[in-house]
């Protein structure tokens, strides 16, 4: 299911907002459950993330459900994007956001390191995102000596920012006249996640510029202006970002050139004088993340760090709103997630957290936030909750990795995309998506929505 609500492959969430299902990403795109992908990720493109980004289980970010090929009439769906480590109702634990770690017992990464698109049934990926869809990685390169803010709750990890950490005033902000608010640019405003964030900013009376590929699809919001540009279009981005202080960069839809689109967009922003970039990444982003799309997010993060511009990373977990889409036509959720847990997060909660960061970016300079739900659940537990909500028996049937690859080969998707679908579930099995944090509550002042609360309202 794409972040805009459409389904690619029966029973498989899509991303996007995040990329891989349940992952943050382009936002709102990407694979189901991932913050990243379709539409919210790509400027002016309908979402999938989150995502945006948001990805599929098995990745470190968010994903679609994969149906097994073995059940009669079952439609294999690419799998979820990120596993959870703590049990349902587990006490929130600090999240390690330092790229490079793939989580305890993380399974080896499958497939190529090039992020894939969210094709039918693709698992959401929040990573280099969504979708990227989302994944662990190497220790980030140190930035300048100016320290970032100290986090007040688990889930936030400050790092040394590479740009000036002091809050900017209208006198030193590009394009801002005396007494005028610094201008914020928002990508992915035509997607599920990006549109929510843009509306929150409008409600707060914030000046914003919506960067879209198709101006006709841009939302009409008070205090906003429209600029036409696509990811990677250097000249158009230079013009669109003129006078902008802070850029919300939602990860783009998964594709073979996703990382290059991200880095080119970052370079154009820096050249245009943007001071701070808020990027929607994926939980556990890293070069060796089990979820292959999460690796894209890590490469994007590393490039942004190296520019010297101020940054904040919002690493979304699998998108909670994509979980119902994991169910196949035969009422089965299938994928190699084992008994792993996933701390999936609702896109509404991601949007609320991102808005708070954008309202005062200087207070979050150099910080990485792992955005999760209040509990981590297994796919067996998810099936039980969905059974109660839907009024019919829904089950989870674990697949082996070989079974998962074979059941998805029939979609005819590129190898890198199939790897993203499968590894989103594998990331859940490895425990890379199971840590619960309090970052959402820390940023918004309220607890995030649980799966039980979400399905009860549908």
Automatic annotation (TrEMBL):
It comes from the Bacteria. Coiled coil: none annotated. Residues 1-179 are annotated as: Disordered. Residues 183-398 form the NmrA-like domain. Residues 51-74, 82-133, 142-171 have a biased composition (Low complexity). Pfam families: NmrA (PF05368). This is Uncharacterized protein YbjT (DUF2867 family). InterPro entries: NAD(P)-bd_dom_sf, NmrA-like, NmrA-type_oxidoreductase. Residues 1-11 have a biased composition (Polar residues).
């Amino acid at each position: 299911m794409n972040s805009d609500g459409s389904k690619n492959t029966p029973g498989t969430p899509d991303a996007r907002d995040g990329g891989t299902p349940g992952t943050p990403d382009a936002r709102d795109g990407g694979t189901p459950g991932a913050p990243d992908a379709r539409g919210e990720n790509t400027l002016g493109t309908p979402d999938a993330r989150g995502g945006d980004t948001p990805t599929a289980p098995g990745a470190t970010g968010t994903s679609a459900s994969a149906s097994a090929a073995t059940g009669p009439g079952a439609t294999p769906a690419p799998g979820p994007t990120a596993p959870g480590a703590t049990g349902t109702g587990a006490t929130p634990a600090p999240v390690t956001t330092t790229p490079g770690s793939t989580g305890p017992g993380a399974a080896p990464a499958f497939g190529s390191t090039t992020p894939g698109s969210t094709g039918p049934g693709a698992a959401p990926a929040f990573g280099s995102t969504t979708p990227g869809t989302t994944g662990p990685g190497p220790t980030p390169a140190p930035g300048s000596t100016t320290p970032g803010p100290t986090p007040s709750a688990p889930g936030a990890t400050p790092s040394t920012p590479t740009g000036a950490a002091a809050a900017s005033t209208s006198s030193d902000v590009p394009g801002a006249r005396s007494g005028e608010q610094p201008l914020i640019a928002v990508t992915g405003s035509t997607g599920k996640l990006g549109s929510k964030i843009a509306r929150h900013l409008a409600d707060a009376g914030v000046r914003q510029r919506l960067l879209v590929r198709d101006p006709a699809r841009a939302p009409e919001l008070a205090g906003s202006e429209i600029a036409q540009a696509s990811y990677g279009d250097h000249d158009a981005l230079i013009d669109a970002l003129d006078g902008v202080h802070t850029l919300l960069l939602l990860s783009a839809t998964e594709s073979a050139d996703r990382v290059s689109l991200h880095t080119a967009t970052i370079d154009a922003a820096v050249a245009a004088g943007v001071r701070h970039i808020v990027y929607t990444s994926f939980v556990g982003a890293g070069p060796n993340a089990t979820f292959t799309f999460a690796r894209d997010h890590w490469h994007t993060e590393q490039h942004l760090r190296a520019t010297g511009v101020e940054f904040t990373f919002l690493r979304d977990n699998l998108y909670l709103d994509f979980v119902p889409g994991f169910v196949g036509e035969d009422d089965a959720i299938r994928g190699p997630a084992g008994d792993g847990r996933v701390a999936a997060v609702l896109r509404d909660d991601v949007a609320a957290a991102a808005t708070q960061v954008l309202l005062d970016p200087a207070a979050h300079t150099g910080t990485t936030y792992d955005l999760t739900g209040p509990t981590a659940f297994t796919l067996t537990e998810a099936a039980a909750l969905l059974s109660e909500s839907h009024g019919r028996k829904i089950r989870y049937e674990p697949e082996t990795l070989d079974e998962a690859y074979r059941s998805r080969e029939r979609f005819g998707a590129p190898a890198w995309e199939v790897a993203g679908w499968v590894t989103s579930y594998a990331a859940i099995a490895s425990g890379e998506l199971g840590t619960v944090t309090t970052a959402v509550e820390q940023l918004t002042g309220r607890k995030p929505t649980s799966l039980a609360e979400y399905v009860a309202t549908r």
